[in-house]
Amino acid sequence: MVGGILGLVGVTITLFYSFFNDKRSKKFQLQLESDNENFQNTLAIQEHERRIWMKKYEVLVQLIGSRYDFSSTEFKRAFNSVPAVFFDSPDVIKSYKNFYSYKSNSSVDDGLANEKLVNIFVEMYRDLEIEENVDETDLEKIFDTN
User: Fold this and answer.
1) Domain boundaries of the chain, sorted by first residue
2) How far apart are CA 145 and CA 73, in angstroms?
3) Which is nearest to 85 in space by CA: 125, 57, 114?
């Protein structure tokens, strides 16, 4: 009889421990799944931000590379994409609008137009956080192959 009671107590303790352990295990598993989902979301956001950064960088390089000829297809294409690519960069957009409105004027001083264009480049460098070694005087120099 004592053996039966001890066996029943042992089974009860085992069932209680098993239930408690199973509950902890499920909670831990849910936490792991949540952490994994958060990690995957973070990776997706970082990848999206990297792609936007690369697109911005490509536009900057295209603009700088074709700045010697405002009428070139490359320059126009890159310049027209600035509002779409730098949509979240108010300083770049402001410089862009400033240059565009000045360049749209019939009487344009090329020196001032170049200065306004360089200002766009500087703002783009800042937005991309790569302005550390940028010298505005280098951006003003243009190597013209014509």
Assistant:
1) 47-140
2) 16
3) 57
pLDDT tens readout for residues 31-87: 888 888 888 989 999 999 999 999 999 999 999 888 888 889 999 999 999 999 999
Residue 63 tokens read as 């603009």
> Any residues with CB less than 8 A from the CB of 125 and at least 6 apart, and which?
60, 131, 134
Tokens of 87: 């949509």
Nearest partner of 69 among 110, 36, 39, 29, judged by Cα: 110
Contact in structure between 75 and 66 (CB atoms under 8 Å): yes
Amino acid at 92: V
Residue 31 and residue 23 in contact, taking contact as beta carbons nearer than 8 Å:
no
To the question of pTM greater than 0.85 for the whole model, the response is no
Residue type at position 33: E
